[in-house]
Design brief:
cilium biogenesis/degradation, alpha+beta, cell membrane, cytoplasm, 15 strands, 24% helix, 7 helices, disordered N terminus, 39% strand, globular, nucleus
Length: 356
């Protein structure tokens, strides 16, 4: 396994390391770093919306859904929260991916959780990778479950060697920003991490304008291509096309027979004037007043908690979308199987399952 050169080297917990002669330092280009540091708050404001696409086969058969949501959030500092998910079935086998990322205003990754699964007959695969900034390091923990076999990997990199890091989550917001600008510099090369947790290069380039049919209209769209290098095989290439307002219209991996497409134009937000309805005071006004005061306090407290933890909405959205996609007869059993992997320990999982 290769690790970067620098003042510190990556520390692996379950993977072997090679000698210094095999290590190679990979860096993001100056153009890429400058692009990230030059992002304006007004640009981020324009990126706060949701995308929803349908995954279709070459023959036009719907296979699943793909969605991306971007919101403002607050942790130790104001940040962006991006949640993306892809769910569907291939050959009647349920599969999906979910990414939740917390990013600074210049797209530096504060924390990201990446989950992939494929449920095959008698042989399921589940991969979870969590990374978080801690004490100047990016600490990464990966758990892979194949059937009954569980493999864990740990890795940490100093943030100094991950300057210009782009992950699955941050790449989606980065492309949205590029699409809104309708231009990008040459030599947009960033660093990323491959499935083996090695540092690799990922680059972006313009695909220019083309026309794409969306619903009953033919619209001009702007294309961005992302090329992800690999240490073990050929690079993978993704091509995305965006509408003028930054909404994603098409997403496809080059060579794949599956395409993610926007079937209908997103509805434009309409301003609605809500008229204040006066309260009708009844009987004991003092008690009614105390009730209303307490109600507002609880409402503000709940709203504050939800703003601090936007992942709650993403988690509930994931569950409901998969529930509606699968339509199980036994909802309680389905909920038990869905939420059990989130338990910290097997004992916790058993207790939660029994409570359901």
């Amino acid at each position: 396994m290769e690790a970067p050169l620098g003042e510190q080297t990556a520390v692996g917990y379950s993977a072997g390391t090679e000698g210094p002669e095999h290590r190679q330092e990979l860096k993001a280009s100056d153009e890429a770093v400058t692009f990230m540091s030059g992002i304006e708050p007004a640009e981020l404001q324009k990126c706060v919306f949701a995308d929803s696409l349908v995954t279709v086969s070459e023959g036009g058969r719907e296979l699943g859904e793909f969605s991306v949501t971007v919101e403002f959030a607050r942790r130790e500092q104001p940040c962006m929260m991006l949640h993306a998910q892809s769910q569907g079935a291939i050959d009647d086998c349920p599969c999906g991916t979910a990414v939740t990322a917390y990013l600074t205003t210049d797209l530096e990754v504060l924390e990201e959780d990446h989950h992939e699964y494929v449920k095959l007959e008698g042989h399921s695969v589940d991969k979870r990778c969590h990374m978080v900034q801690r004490d100047g390091q990016m600490v990464i923990h990966k758990v892979t479950t194949v059937g009954e076999e569980v493999t864990e990997e740990g890795m940490s990199y100093p943030m100094s060697v991950l300057r210009g890091l782009v992950t699955e989550g941050s790449s989606l917001l980065l492309m949205r920003l590029i699409a809104l600008r309708r231009k990008m510099p040459e030599n947009m090369t960033f660093v990323s991490l491959d499935p083996g947790l090695h540092i690799i290069h990922t680059s972006f380039r313009e695909l220019g304008q083309r026309q794409l049919e969306v619903g009953a209209e033919v619209l001009d769209v702007f294309g961005v291509e992302r090329i992800i290098q690999s240490m073990e095989g050929s690079p993978s290439t993704w091509q995305c096309y965006f509408l003028d307002d930054g909404h994603l219209a098409s997403r496809v991996q080059v060579g794949s027979p599956v395409t993610m497409r926007l079937l209908e134009l997103p509805l434009k937000a309409e301003k609605v004037d809500f008229k204040k309805i006066p309260l009708v005071w009844e009987e004991d006004m003092q008690m009614h007043s105390k009730f209303l005061d307490r109600k507002e306090e609880r409402k503000a407290d709940h709203s504050s908690y939800l703003r601090q933890h936007p992942e709650i909405r993403a988690l509930i959205s994931d569950f409901l979308q998969l529930l509606l996609l699968r339509k199980p007869d036994d909802v309680f059993l389905f909920a038990r199987e869905y939420f059990t992997p989130f338990a910290s320990h097997p004992a916790d999982a058993d207790q939660e399952a029994q409570s359901l």
